[in-house]
Amino acid sequence: MAEPGRLTRDEVAHVADLARLELTEDELELFTGQLAEVLDHAADVASLDLTGVAPTAHAMAVSNVLRPDEVRPALDRDEVLGQAPSVEDHRFRVPRILGDAP
Amino acid sequence: MTSPRPSTFLANAVRSGARSAVDVLEEHLAIIESGDGEVHAFNLVTVDLAREQAIAVDRTVHAGEDPGPLAGVPVALKDNLCTRGVPTTCSSHILEGWRPPYDATVVDRLHRAGAVMVGKTNMDEFAMGSSTESSAFGPTRNPHDTSRVPGGSSGGSAAAVAAGFVPLALGSDTGGSIRQPAALCGVVGMKPTYGTVSRYGLVAFASSLDQIGPFATTVADAALLFDVIGGHDPCDSTSLNRPTPRVLSVLDDGVAGLTVGLLTEFLDGADPDVVARTREAADALAAAGARVEEVSVPEVVLGLSAYYLIAPGEASSNLARYDGVRYGLRVDAADTVAMNRATRSAGFGAEVKRRIMLGTYVLSAGYMDAYYNQALRVRTKIIEGFATAYRRCDVLLGPTTPTTAFPVGAKTGDPLTMYLSDVCTIPTNLAGHPAVSVPFGTGDDGLPVGVQVLGPALSEGTILKVAAVVEAAAPPLAAPVLAVGGRA
Questions:
Q1: Is B368 near chain A, with CB under 8 Å?
Q2: What confidence tens digit (pLDDT) does each residue in B206-226 have?
Q3: B381 and A79 in contact by Cβ < 8 A?
Q4: Which residue of A has its CA nearest to B316?
Q5: Which residue of B has its CA nearest to A32?
Q6: What is the pLDDT tens value at each position of chain A, 102 positions in all?
Q7: At what angle do helices B21-39 and B6-16 cross, to 10 degrees?
């Protein structure tokens, strides 16, 4: 399996954007070096030939976990909404999503 | 050869009316008050709530009813366990002030067993770290030497038990976060089999690896706490719906006839003093009737790399929920995406950002097969490697950590070096197996050494009875001395 090249600063900036994080120039510089070092260490895994080995996502996998379809008490609405930064008419309120910001 | 049972002793005194739960609580609150300025084990001490709970326990006793096996026993909770109406921060600014609308299942079970919750303990932010230094609220100190780290990420819980603030505490272990701090602080800590303890109400880090487990001063107390918190929970769909091993009853069965494998890969990277203590523990098991042999599981050396691809991958997905919408911090901005960015950038610390980015990268198109999927195949190889060893051995033995507690600040500038302190604990999480760290003497620097007993899935009873024999043979560990009333 081809091993990816060393992590670049542009890739880190792109990943930060995907993860909705804003990094300062200093953070970008620091994290690029540190993350590249971790990925270099992971080369021992990336370079192995594991053709035919099944992946394990869960060591103690359980499947088809069902429960009876019964009405049960849920979390208290006001208690839940009471933890939100902004609420209107029993809903979570957020800044505008569509169109240009005012 | 009986493991001491201080919490059972305390609970029985409360159950019989010989001591009041209020009296037990006040004694512990006084110790916390005098020592925690120096240690900083707690993010929050819930004095009023604890007093209410202790009064309720005493009332139950006076009514002629039994409050349960932990009657009046003070317990500390890692601050990633949800407590209804009580701040739960994960030691992160992004959750500062959040009061969960529900209790974690383990919190509910502790309450039903008569325990008194005294507070929430400090941790690495979102459990990402090995020293409790990534906490947004400042580091916890090792009670045995306050210039050293307590380990992490459950460093606050380990330090609270080591300092005598509480006899019992809960932590969570994703890659060693119970066992590693237990070893560095000289207490007992167990990571149970995945699925034996409900994760409902445990703030998620890496869901296929996270598991809640006990801290205690003795093996028997850890077993007692595991018996209370374990068992199937319909609120956690990964909870195993089969009998959880009951461990307290088999604890004193001894090790005669058991085969113990001394895991050579764990010895290879450890300091000579840590290796020496581990070999002495193995000798003690042999003297008690176990058959001890050296065993190699070559796959475990790949554990660290696989873990640092899998755990950040899962974390990057789990931590996407901190978006400033439903709870926690919001930093206002003109539109929602800008608000998400501003909130996450201000709310997360450096280590959490690193792991989110690492996880996002290894799951991104073009890299997922080379890194993440490859790590999942390594996980299979590690499970197979352990399975081979467990055909010959009942349990495996090794050091919990390669070194004793390191100085505060020694590894914060170099994440990879920090990650290496979990090299002996990570393989267990990848396999879903249980393992327990038990103190065994000290290193050349006089600081505690932890020896780790590992076993196959659902072997808690076996690893704990082996740990009880190790404990009985261990040299006595001096209690930490804190400057009374000292404030760091």
A1: no
A2: 999 999 999 999 999 999 999
A3: no
A4: A19
A5: B354
A6: 445 678 999 999 999 999 999 999 999 999 999 999 999 999 889 889 999 999 999 998 888 888 889 999 999 999 999 999 999 999 999 998 887 655
A7: 140
Indicate if B119 and B177 belong to the same structural domain. yes
Q: What is the pLDDT of residue B419?
A: 93
Residues of B with catalytic annotation?
78, 153, 177
Q: Choose from A9, A10, A15, A88 for mutation: most chain B CBs within 10 A.
A: A15
Cα distances from A46 to residues B234, B378, B386, in angstroms, run 38, 10, 21
DSSP A2: P
In a domain, A20, yes or no: yes
The ipTM of this complex is 0.93
pTM of the model: 0.97
The mean pLDDT values, 10 residues at a time, for chain B of 488 residues are 90 98 98 97 98 98 98 98 98 96 98 98 98 98 98 98 98 98 98 98 98 98 97 95 88 96 97 98 98 98 96 98 97 96 98 97 92 96 98 98 97 93 97 98 98 98 98 95 56
Q: Is residue A25 part of a domain?
A: yes
Task: For residue B428, give both structure tokens.
Answer: 């267990």
**For residue B310, what are the domain limits?**
300-379
Which residue on chain A is closest to B306 by alpha carbon? A45
Position B25 scores a pLDDT of: 98
Nearest-by-Cβ selection for A84 from B327, B348, B366: B327
Q: Is residue A78 part of a domain?
A: no
Q: Which of B336, B355, B379 is the last residue of a domain?
A: B379
Min Cα separation A63/chain B (Å): 9
Q: Say if the Cβ atoms of B302 and A58 lie within 8 Å.
A: no
Q: Chains A, B: CB contacts under 8 A, how many?
A: 184
Quote the crossing angle between the two packed helices B6-16 and B219-229, to the nearest 10°: 60
Q: How many domains does chain B have?
A: 2
* Residue A14 covered by a domain: yes
Residue where a domain terminates, one of B360, B379, B398:
B379
Report yes or no: B345 at the A interface, CB cutoff 8 Å: yes
Q: Say which CATH number the domain at A23 has.
A: 1.10.20.60
Q: Which residue has the tokens 């459990």?
A: B127
> Residues B138, B219: one domain?
yes
